[in-house]
Amino acid sequence: MQLGMRKHIIVRSIIVLGILLGIVRLALLFGSRPDAKVPGQYETLDQAAALYPDYTDVTIPPNIAPLNFLVSDSSATAYVARFAGEAGHEILVGADAGGLIQLDTLQWREMLQASKGADITVSIFAKKLGGWVMYKPHVLSVAREDIDPFLSYRLIEPGYELYRQLGIYQRDLTSFVERPIYENNREYADGENHCINCHNYRNYSAANMVFHVRSNHGGTIVVHGDKASKVQIKDSTIITAGVYPAWYPDEGQRLLAFSTNKTGQTFHVYHPEKIEVMDEASDLLLYDAEKNEVCHILRTKGILETFPNWSPDGKWLYYTQADISRNVDLTGPDSTLAQRLVFDYDNVRYDLMRMPFDISSRTFGQPETVVDATSNGKSITLPRVSPDGRYVLYTLGNYGQFHIWHKSSDLWVKDLERDSCYALRAANSSDVDSYHSWSSNGRWIVFSSRRMDGNYTRPFIAYFDENGQSRKAFCLPQEDPEHNLLLLKSYNVPELTRDRVQVSEHELRRCIYETDGENARYLPGRQVPVRDSADGVSGASPRRPATADATSGASPKQPK
Amino acid sequence: MSKQKSNPKKVVAAGVRTARPEDKSSSEPRKPVILPVIPLLFLFVWLWAAVYFGHVFRICREYSFWVSSPGEMEFLLSRSFGSLWYVGRMLLQLFRFPWAGALLMAFLLSMGSWLLGYAMRLRPRWRWVQYLPAIAYMAVVTYHGLDIFFEAETGRILGIPFIIVLVLSIWAVIIRSFSRKPAPAIVRIPGDETPWQNRVQLLVIVAGMLCVMGYNEWRRAEVRVVCRLMDAQYVQDWETIQRVARDNADMSNRPMAAYYAMALVHTDQVATRLYDIRLDYDTLHVHGMDWHANNASGMYIPEGSYHAGLIETSYHACMEQMVMTGPTVRLLQLMTKCALMRSEWELARKYLRILRDVPFEGGFCKKYGAMVNKPDLVNADVEMAKIRLTEPIHDSFENQYQQPTFMGYNLALVEGRSMNALYNSLAVCLYTKVMPDFMMRLNPIRGTTPPDNFADGILLCRNKQEGIENGFTGLNLREPRLDAYMKSVQPYLKDRPRYARELFPRFKGYYPYYYFFGNLKATRKSQKGSNLSSSSGVN
């Protein structure tokens, strides 16, 4: 046989073999999945199927993406899930031994729209050695009210000191599409590394947005429509730059309240909470984005004010406050304050406060206590007023202000109309339940929880009914439910908006990399004259400017 | 062949003696030996990568992470050349078994050499040039030393040879398609080479590799030792760690000292054998991802904290490294163990799930997966049970400890969970030369014969606190040695840094030598501080 002929045969054999292998592979992929058909005969079990994530008996928005999940039963070789909704709608999904139940998005949407205000019954069948079994069915209650379709969050490794690659992303809740709003540099570069944090929107619309950039290219990024600008909110009297933001709700006013915090963190050696993030100083600022002017709202020594949030009518500014003069001797040197505070970290507690605001004169009235948590040995952070102004949703924990690391933290509500406080028991878990925000219709809340593994936060969504009670929360659905297991980052600061962020990543990159940011003009003497815990005179103790990264608890890697 | 005949010198290579034409005892001239250079290069590279550098490449693989799912590898794929590093990391997985990884590396380097020769149409007299890239590759790997994996992109190790071979293959195919130039033999002896040309090629390879290995022994000798220790630590082979460290006692670097200390902790020898190696810490050729000089603390702080019973601190250190470098097999394994030790079952399950997709990690997942939700199994594990003995009793914060935390915790806490914790604590006090803290902790062992290092420490403390030796037995047996030692080192005390290295072989393993001559850079640093007990500066 000629050499050329032999080569030809070899090449042809390889091609044929490749095609055969491909066919076998395809057969394995599709052939192992059973028909999505309810078995004719099955035994009914009294136990519920083990699902990941737990989507049993939850209330869901009619516009949510499919709730894909995993069923795990080591003795099962195949599964069928039947979703039975209103008006005879039915979806059948088959799965192999891996138990991955993935719904068809179009069928799911149709079913949800048809089942508004009704229940969907989910029955799961498993094929075992002795035949098919059916687990105890569970129910998905479909609410009438939609959730705001966009969820923004930051993806970052949980806590600790260093950061590297991170970004703010926006997820379309009606599908699985996630789009980066802004990502920092993917590759390590000494002069480029920067942290981004504290994204916030006005009135549930992404048209006005703010977030901070720390370290290289630092500044506060203010977004208006599709344009971004950088500002430096700094002054010798301001502790650090602006930190936790809150947009003033009136569309005609480009005002923001900020806290300014000197934050540090320390690491437990033998404690399930791992990290303690503490402020040693914090004040409140008012920033006018139109005029690029900033002034103090509250400037006190020994009293820490933080986490501002406006009422929807703009007449009240809510915030939390701790008096650390109870914990440490404030007459000692400022340089050792943090060290002294650490020894009493679990006795620092915050109350829920508010102060009236007059937009015409831009003046604040005297602060008043809304919830005295300290007297009950508790601590409040992150007040968020509901869109109808009736409820203040906050996080309650045993101590401190960074509840995202406190196992005791739970979501609580202050009903301003009935003057009562209560926990959202159905939504809470035994682990961390913290950073929360409202949907614009006030019927949904989204919050961060570490309930899945105690370390990585995942966004959970809960229905908030007309009686001010929540329903059981469910985890943000993913196309592949294992995503939650495989992802080594936390979801941070989940914020709902009605619309998509308009500004492009390119515009943000230009703004961050190519502009230095104009310094905001500081207007002195505007702060509210409140009593200071140390010397009785507000604003009487000028502070030295601090450089700590106050919000993320993260710092760029230092050269070793 | 005509050239061959005209050349009076004949080849002696690979132990084969060739015939001389003038040898009259031979009836006809023997054929000159021409060796197949490419297979020999393959063999040499295999030996280098599997035997000489096997532990190093195995650690490279531990410092890497690869799963087939692009979603999980997005952190890598989204970077420049991410796809190439993805392939490189995939190939690196073979170094789980160094012989297998070395086969691949040998294939890539020898195939690359052959293809280069073909693609460049090298004539036989220039064929030695084709081996230079392979030798250069080995030289670069050697030069970088620990930097090839520490805070580095491990995908480069095999990704670069892979892409070179790929490009050369395409190039060769194009040449073959258009010019029909015959390819030189790979396995068979090339027919167009003279013995001299063949000898030059072998000489280039052998000399090049000898130079590379010579350089490694001269300037990067610590690389193989440190990697061997790390490798042994992964399999909890404490005896090998001790043997290797003692065999290289004169070599001093922090990772080696840390792994040696871990082995001593696990074999209850921390009070007797700590000073068998030199503890002066020469500067290492290590740079982090920022390319600044680095003391390689990231190589041992996570493990050091874990083996010191500081599980949260270890987890913290792991997480910091993972933030900077992305996940690695080593970090995920350690974080799994931390989660199990702290009964964070769901967290352990998460890391095990991720590791399950990494090739060759089935054994680890099976062993530690069985412990999820089963604290009894965790406590029954030999390594974990030992570590449990030194876990703190009370919570406190890392910044309340002397740094690095895994060394300093014993100084901050006076309460321990067990005698092991007390022994570690006393050993650390001696190591950091903080004698007041050492004396403060002696009471629980009064009435016993203290281990050698403790006994020597007590004797050294006599001048600081009268009667400190009371209540201990057996001290008198060590007293004469101390007296003799003090007399013999008296002339050297005036210039300790100068004589420290010289005296080490004489007093290896003897604590008073370390007290006066060991770790002097750190001791000097500590003496500048105002508060010795809280800031000894020794770390």
Mean pLDDT of chain A, to the nearest integer, reads 89
**Which spans of chain A have pLDDT < 50 for at least 5 consecutive residues?**
533-560
Oligomer: heterodimer
How far apart the termini of chain A lie comes to 68 Å
Query: From the helix content, strand content and strand pairing of chain B, which structural class follows?
Result: mainly alpha
* Mean residue pLDDT of chain B: 88
Radius of gyration of chain B: 29 Å
What is the C-alpha radius of gyration of chain A, as a whole number of Å? Answer: 27 Å
Biggest interface between chains? A-B, 37 and 48 residues
| Low-confidence blocks of residues of chain B | 1-24, 528-539
Structural class of chain A: mainly beta
Number of strands of chain A: 37
Shape of chain A: globular
Overall spatial form of chain B: globular
Briefly, what CATH class of the domain at 225-495 in chain A?
A: Mainly Beta
Percentage of residues in strands of chain B: under 5%
**Alpha plus pi helix count of chain A:** 5
Strand content of chain A: 35-45%
Number of helices of chain B: 27
Q: What fold name goes in the CATH topology slot of the domain at 225-495 in chain A? A: Neuraminidase
